[in-house]
């Protein structure tokens, strides 16, 4: 099979914003990339399928979950082929590829994960089967879901192909990630080409006019006590740090402080860390930080105060990254022990504003039940019989469902049953 059957067409009319995307398709595909951002409900899947048909070559669709993988097949059968049975030229198993193959990022990673697995796969003929299929189009659905290892496997797969066209679709680009992660995302998906905006969906009446609000939920008394206890521990660590003569001496003798001009390249690679050292030494006492203004590129008369953010930057580097400070094992070990005891270290990073335990506690805080109740009561009072309201939550909590009127349980966590 060298092309899709010629009689495959989308069964409905295109929405205006979908027509806009399709009308500029040729221009955006000149670099063999199409990177489209579109909100949920805008028809990204059907657009991806139409682009696939227009490119008209062997295609691999990669989705983040099994449910979304199956959705791609369902949309294609229902809206394009208009049939229930899957044709033989469509495969849902990457190990048995066909002209159109739909898989997950995890399955793709399992094929390209490590050398030992590759050797086993080659013996089974999987890579040879993929090569024979000769994929010319790769559709990446919600590519921002890629973990670091999955991203590498996806790139390895793309490099294996001969000049493939990559179509990346997402509702939420990972704007909040580190620069390295963003560059990795763009390396795989290509620069952003087109965006379907929310107002376009509202204009087409595919999305209701709406306003976003934020409702603040206060932690419970017990949760506030845990947070306050953590803050007290952090304050004690801050005092210990500033008054720790050994640590202060280590930082005063740091090569970047003693001979900044010699280490200028390293300083410019980590300007935040350099700034955190200066801010710490200024806080400690008499220190001529102004002698370093030419390196900071600042003509200001003051430095920021040593707050929790700057201390996080300082300690993360001192305890886990800086070879100079790591040589003072006894000094660093004492600081590391205090931070670990407080729960302020996670995956070789220092967290002083909050920690993983507190974040998890607040994420699942039962105090949000009261906020949900207040919001529902407010909306019900205003909209009355016109109220149509959906509450989304992570868990069902079926075990919290009472089996009798006498069996009603204390509500202490979030979930469908507790909220209901």
The major beta sheet can be summarized as: 7 strands, parallel
How many strand units?
9
CATH level-four homologous superfamily name of the largest domain = P-loop containing nucleotide triphosphate hydrolases
CATH fold group of the largest domain: Rossmann fold
In the CATH scheme, the class of the largest domain would be Alpha Beta
Number of helices, counting only DSSP H or I runs of 4 residues or more: 22
Domain Helicase ATP-binding: 25-191
Organism: Sutcliffiella tianshenii
Protein name: Helicase ATP-binding domain-containing protein
Features:
51% helix, Rossmann fold, Helicase_ATP-bd, P-loop_NTPase, seven-stranded parallel beta sheet, 22 helices, Helicase ATP-binding domain-containing protein, alpha/beta, 420 residues, two-stranded antiparallel sheet, 3 domains, 8% strand
Protein topology:
Elements: H1 16-23, H2 25-28, E1 33-37, H3 44-55, E2 59-63, H4 66-81, E3 90-91, E4 100-104, H5 105-111, H6 115-124, H7 126-133, E5 137-141, H8 148-160, E6 165-170, H9 179-189, E7 194-195, H10 198-203, H11 221-242, H12 245-252, H13 255-258, H14 264-269, H15 271-284, H16 293-296, H17 308-320, H18 323-326, H19 329-342, E8 345-346, E9 349-350, H20 356-363, H21 367-383, H22 416-419
Helix pairs in contact: 5-8, 8-9, 11-19, 15-17
Organism: Sutcliffiella tianshenii
Protein name: Helicase ATP-binding domain-containing protein
Pfam families: ResIII
